[in-house]
Design brief:
- The protein is mostly helical.
- The chain is built from 20 helices and two strands.
- About 2% of the residues have low confidence.
Length: 457
């Protein structure tokens, strides 16, 4: 009976996600999503020019791009839109997958956005699957986490645009799922669903890491996650070092074979040791705002003001700051969201206490939680380091860690419910129901803030 309810709820969540995300894709004005013209032009070059693009001087046009954003992408200024190509250094996988969509739809932007929406559905399903494998005794946690990922307003906005973020998050989700299965399921997971393998081959992890290497540089950390999974299992199962070496080789060899082909191409095109095209990107993107300049001009030289702006804008844009960061929501909305996050995170303590974690967890479950923690650390560190040089206070850069963050929110909300679970066991399912409220808020944000404040020509 419970399993039937779970399937019904996850199907409802995915269907609701598809409906709302499609509205974000259709109703967001053309090009009014971060970097969308540059991502679109990457695909255009593959199809129309029959080649993979190469980043070159002139692909970044600071003055023209600022004019476009300031005018709301006035059609009178779009005659040079196809010259915006500063994402041409990006790994190729998302754009190759988009190429048939572009060709069949004659380059229709909405159709290409809807392809990203479909990839996002995979992210929602992966979230549910990963969390269920991690803690099958608490199915409502997996559903709450999936609902959070599905209905976060800014996340919907990104997944409803032409951007390689959708595929990057899907690869992260698949890698976390493969890591959880590789580490081994809890006893109840194996008992309840014998179709799920107790372990999977490390080669699967290696292939997924290889796909990450040709998807987006912001998910290169998955190589470290896969190696960590091998090390954790080695420690727990007391392998001889030769067996551990075989598993590490099974991860690294396919990953390097897949990624190495792309890196070799970049070395040929960009020279030196520029395997990811990032050195060329820094040379081309002249005029990007740097941290030192921002602190001096916008913060009066104050590091404290800089850190406040960094934290505030990151939080706002994690939840919803639409368009090219030009359409925030009202301050009182962000205050309520901050209060909700504080309450949810505080609920982690009663959840851990009431459920006797980590003592009641199996070895594989504890290892999966270590993996979750490592993902958060990797992503947050990369975000912080990037902002030591550039000024990119965009919460969407934290989305590669969205599944572990959703897990924290889910257990925090359930923590408060668990205080009364002996009297009212059904309260555990209340946070799942609460995700309907988040879905309604996402629709409200689209209608009230995004659409009215972005011009439609």
């Amino acid at each position: 009976m419970i399993r039937r309810i779970e399937w019904t709820v996850i199907i409802f969540i995915v269907a609701a996600y598809l409906a709302i995300a499609s509205q974000y894709a259709v109703r967001t004005p053309d090009w009014q999503a971060p970097d969308e013209p540059a991502h679109y032009n990457y695909v255009r070059q593959i199809v129309d020019e029959d080649r993979l693009p190469v980043l070159k001087m002139g692909d970044w046009q600071q003055e023209y791009q600022e004019q476009l954003k300031a005018s709301g992408f006035d059609p009178a200024l779009l005659d040079r839109l196809d010259s915006i190509e500063y994402e041409d250094h990006q790994p190729l996988l998302y754009y190759v997958l988009q190429a048939p969509i572009y060709a069949l739809s004659d380059g229709d932007l909405i159709t290409m956005r809807l392809f990203s929406v479909l990839l996002g559905a995979g992210v929602v399903i992966c979230t549910w699957a990963v969390l269920w494998v991690c803690v099958p005794r608490y199915p409502y946690l997996a559903l709450s986490g999936a609902g959070f990922v599905a209905f976060l307003p800014q996340h919907l906005s990104i997944l409803g645009s032409v951007s390689n973020d959708a595929l990057a998050e899907l690869v992260v989700g698949l890698t976390l799922l493969a890591s959880a299965l590789y580490l081994g399921n809890s006893r109840r997971s194996a008992e309840n669903n014998p179709a799920i393998p107790h372990h999977i081959s490390p080669v699967v992890l290696g292939v997924l890491v290889g796909l990450a290497l040709i998807t987006k540089t912001t998910i290169y950390f998955l190589g470290g996650i896969a190696v960590l999974a091998v090390l954790l299992r080695w420690r727990r199962e007391h392998w001889p070092w030769r067996l551990a070496a075989r598993h590490l080789a099974a991860v690294l060899i396919p990953a390097l074979l897949i990624g190495g082909m792309w890196w070799g191409r970049n070395l040929y095109m960009y020279g030196g040791l520029d395997i990811a095209g990032l050195q060329r990107h820094e040379e081309v993107t002249i005029g990007q705002l740097r941290r030192n300049t921002y602190v001096a001009l916008e913060c009066g030289g104050s590091t404290r003001v800089y850190l406040e702006n960094f934290a505030r804008t990151t939080f706002h844009s994690f939840w919803g700051q639409f368009g090219w960061m030009a359409v925030p929501m009202p301050q009182n909305i962000y205050r309520l969201l901050l209060l909700g996050v504080i309450i949810a995170l505080a609920g982690v303590v009663p959840f851990v206490w009431r459920n006797h974690w980590p003592r009641q967890l199996s070895g594989p479950q504890r290892d999966i939680l270590v993996i979750f923690g490592a993902v958060i650390v990797f992503v947050a560190t990369a975000y912080g380091l990037y902002n030591l040089d550039f000024v990119q206070f965009q919460g969407r850069y934290l989305y590669p860690a969205l599944i572990p963050l959703a897990f924290l929110i889910a257990i925090g909300l359930d923590g408060w419910m668990s205080l009364a679970e002996n009297r009212f066991p059904a309260l555990d399912w209340l946070p799942v129901t609460g995700m309907i409220g988040l879905a309604l808020f996402a629709w409200y944000a689209l209608d009230t803030y995004l659409v009215p404040n972005l011009p439609v020509w």
